[in-house]
Amino acid sequence: MPPQLLTGPWRTVARVLTEVFQPPVVVLVLLLISPAIEPGFPGTMWSGLLAAMFVCVLPLAYVLVMVKLGRITDHHVSDRRQRPVLLLMTLASVLVGLLVLHLLSGPVSVTVMVIALIGGIGVLAVVSAFWKMSGHASALAAAVVISVMMFGPEWLPLLLLVPAVGWSRLVLRAHTLPQVIAGSLFGGIVIAGLWWLLREWML
After folding, report:
1. Dist. CA 150–CA 145, nearest whole Å
2. CA dist., res. 175 & res. 161, Å (int)
3. What integer pLDDT is reported at residue 10 of this predicted model?
4. What is the DSSP string of the chain?
5. b/e per residue, 159-170, with b = 16+ CB within 10 A?
6. Angstrom distance (rounded) from CA 142 to CA 26
7. CA angle 9, 4, 138 (to 5 degrees)
8. What distance in Å separates the CA atoms of residue 98 and residue 80, rounded to the nearest whole number?
9. What is the pLDDT of residues 64-94, one digit of tens each?
10. Which of 153, 156, 162, 185 is most deeply packed, by most CB within 10 A?
11. What is the C-alpha to C-alpha distance for residues 202 and 188, in angstroms, rounded to an integer?
């Protein structure tokens, strides 16, 4: 990568991309639009918001508290050794969210999205114990591919966000190129593919 793309204003751009498209934000948006494939949307967005509380908001709040206490390095959890415990806690929160959605008879499409995310989080939890695959790339690639499958090919330009955010993680030296590529492929193929299979089976 040319040195001029690693310093100065480009580094500021990288920070902005990393913050705007961090996994909790991306997943929150994905959950909000997840009921769109069923009748009743946008009135059913409440269910996506409820799911986001358990999948995104509570885990992020936990991270911020742990950062404040000095037990986690930063809100991106840059130290991979700190990731497995966080991801396991997130899994527990997500399972509680699924139970609440079931009790409230939420749309099946939201449950489908949450289960697909559980699969992704579970794999990331295992991989993070050995290798720091990019969560940013994984979440964004999954969200973009799922959005295209939900709303059609006119959403394909969103795919440009994936290399842009991957570039930001490289500039900030949060990941290596293989980690970014692996995260992108995992999110775009495995998580999005799992969502598609669950949608075909459950809806």
Report:
1. 9
2. 17
3. 85
4. --GGGSSTHHHHHHHHHHHHT-HHHHHHHHHHHGGGGSTTTTTTHHHHHHHHIIIIIHHHHHHHHHHHTTSSS-TT--SGGGHHHHHHHHHHHHHHHHHHHHHTT--HHHHHHHHHHHHHHHHHHHHHTT----HHHHHHHHHHHHHHHHH-GGGGGGGGHHHHHHHHHHHTTSS-HHHHHHHHHIIIIIIHHHHHHHHHHH-
5. bebbeebbbbbb
6. 9
7. 75
8. 27
9. 999 999 989 888 888 878 888 888 888 889 8
10. 162
11. 21
Residue length of the chain: 203
72 within 8 A of 66, measured Cβ to Cβ: yes
Type of residue found at 105 = S
Q: What angle do CA 199, 128, 159 make, to 5 degrees?
A: 50
Q: What is the pTM of this model?
A: 0.88
Tokens for 160?
A: 């440009």
